[in-house]
Predict the structure of Formyl-CoA:oxalate CoA-transferase.
Amino acid sequence: MSKPLEGIRIIDFTHVQAGPACTQLLAWFGADVIKVERPGSGDVTRNQLRDIPDADALYFTMLNSNKKSLTLDTKKPEGKEVLEKLIRESDVLVENFGPGALDRMGFSWERLNELNPKMIVASVKGFSDGHHYDDLKVYENVAQCAGGAASTTGFWDGPPTISAAALGDSNTGMHLAIGILTALLGRDKTGKGQKVAVSMQDSVLNLCRVKLRDQQRLERVGYLEEYPQYPHGEFSDVVPRGGNAGGGGQPGWVLKCKGWETDPNAYIYFTIQGHAWEPICKALGKPEWIDDPAYKTAEARQPHIFDIFKTIEGWLADKTKFEAVDILRKFDIPCAPVLTMKELANDPSLRASGTIVEVPHKKRGSYLTVGSPIKFSDMKPEITASPLLGEHTEEVLASLGYSKQDIFNLREVKAV
Ligand code: CAO
């Protein structure tokens, strides 16, 4: 089965997480992704948080599946020459260096466009061009703070909190992938490449849009009725942290199940969907709540929503999180167990769907990694191991017309 992005050649000038997550996705869907890495060291994540001595760290292997690795010193004239050839023969260049690094290397957008007017040049930066912080280097948590996620995450009596989900890194990479695919479709119409830029701040903010909604509501009416601060607490003039409250119009909370005293993840998330009130009451054995005016409507429930949650916790006390969900699902109640990474890693459904896969690696043996979260009716992305440093240097150089002697010469000057 041929893959939709087959024939698209991508120069992957990315490192750490935001850029590699983007190019990995495109590689899964068939693009020929050539990761350009500094000879001798490569992507810094090859060495970060290693669990096996002398083998690429999982940090690297889980973000660089299905790619080729070309070592190239792009600061040396011989390396620049190779890169120029590669640029002329590629469709996309993706990079997430610190601000100005590509320009300093001699590959500004203008130069790249001159070398290959059809090429799409895609960049991740911490802040967008022209932003007053556009000179800053940025990592995940910095972006979560700058994009509004941290100020709105956590509990009201605690500090701003970072999410474990990579909202700054992988999320930005996914935005960039959408930008690249859009530019490729655009090129089909115009024949021209273009620059695609995504900032980590913008990508985080794009996911925090409901908090921007809340800021405007707060300014208009002075309170936010779905937040735990309503009606008894106080609101200032900024969107507060709402703990585990549901972000939309459906109140919800993380509730204790059997064993919570010793198991920090013996919890479920329980949502009180307005129109599901009757089945909720039936599931909980509280039919008297169905028509009780103190419970019947969302407005009536809100002032004592935490008492309601306490009652539900009483019902959950003799049920594990899995038993509870198995009962509640029969009543069509949106809920889920709080799953640990261990439970997810061993989940047979996730293995069967290809969301979590085990791949063989030349040095590590087999390792667990994420597969495509996007499912297609006509294609099942096959996940292959990340490349060793420089594993495909000769293959890529030969495809550009370099002879064995040329490659030897490049090695002599340590350009590859
Ligand atoms: N050959 C020769 N030089 C190379 C090279 C190669 N193959 N690949 C990279 N380099 C050089 C670059 O030219 C640059 O050199 P100069 O700074 O001298 O111009 C340097 O290596 C890389 O610089 P950097 O600023 O990208 O790296 P850093 O470790 O100091 O910063 C990071 C890392 C992530 C903070 C920064 O790259 C950044 O802000 N990126 C944009 C935002 C981003 O993507 N962040 C998410 C990272 S995931 O958490």
In short: The CA atoms of residues 78 and 271 lie 61 Å apart. The chain has a mean pLDDT of 97. The pocket of oxidized coenzyme A is lined by residues 16-19, 36-38, 72-75, 96-98, 101, 104-105, 124-126, 137-140, 169 (CB under 6 Å).
